[in-house]
Amino acid sequence: WAKAEGRGRWATYDPERRAREQAKSAMVVAMSAALERDEFTVDYQPIVTLTDGEICAAEALVRWRHPERGLLGPDEFIGLAEETGLIIELGRWVLTRACEAASRWLRDFPDARLVVSVNLAARQAGDPSIVATVSEVLRRTGLPADLLQLELTESAVMAIAGEPLPALRRLAALGVRLAIDDFGTGYSNLAYLRRLPIHSLKLAGPFVDGIRSSDRQGLVDGRIVDALVRLAHALGLSVTAEAVETVGQADQLRALGCDAAQGRHFGAPAPESEITRYLATRADGRREPVA
Ligand code: C2E
Ligand code: MG
Ligand code: MG
Ligand code: MG
């Protein structure tokens, strides 16, 4: 009859929930300590132009080298960091690291003009000091604004505190590029999308995953991707496909007019040095796959 009494009241005495809550607060404490102890690290995944196969950007993806639990992916701690507000500090740290890396690439390989793409949580985008933070990081690292792209998911855009449109306009006014991440998985209001000062759409993995199969569903997914690419281009946006795992997917995406792609087929997320090594190899005139 605990349920009949109302969840809120009895949940307090639920030992499982209590254990979960304790684990959560332990995580929060550990996460702020981890920032000080430099346990976070940023990997970079190449983003490749589909027409020529050249690397054009790299997405910064945060990881946590947890002393006991090993390497943790963002899905294990970003949500909690958002909930607690720690994402502001962690996000600034990632942004700084990413811009530092990109300015090293610009210094050593100026012709490549590699863009670094950084994920922005709703809470960061809605933070009144975000514009000051981004321009300060750009100034300190010397990275030209147009070599920084900020990625926001549709739901992050909708969840921006205050008004999404002015917040995004202020960011765009810095000269940085804005991309909608995981496009197609969220709530898409096309009329609204039209008004956003964005530069590109990142097509969510599940659509890309579907086009590999030659069955009916694969055909449908292919048509959806076709429609989304046309839609993006009609809106003046470029399209990057995520989670491209096979050459077949890459070929089909190219045939559909998709502009760029990332995924294990082109290269998994890896340390900065791996992108640097690839750029160096290319500068030497030798060509080899990104991976
Ligand atoms: P995302 O921005 O959509 O990043 C792409 C995800 O796809 C990454 O997962 C990447 O490792 C994964 N991926 C790469 N290649 C493939 C592939 O061939 N197939 C498939 N299925 N997946 C592939 P990851 O690194 O686990 O990151 C998960 C999410 O965490 C990211 O999704 C992003 O939303 C968030 N995230 C990562 N770093 C940050 C950060 O610094 N700040 C914020 N706010 N969010 C972050
Ligand atoms: Mg992303
Ligand atoms: Mg994504
Ligand atoms: Mg995502």
TrEMBL record:
The organism's place on the tree of life at top rank: Bacteria
Domain (EAL) ranges: 24-283
Protein name: Bifunctional diguanylate cyclase/phosphodiesterase
Organism expressing this protein natively: Plantactinospora solaniradicis
Included stretch of the parent chain: 431 to 721 of 721
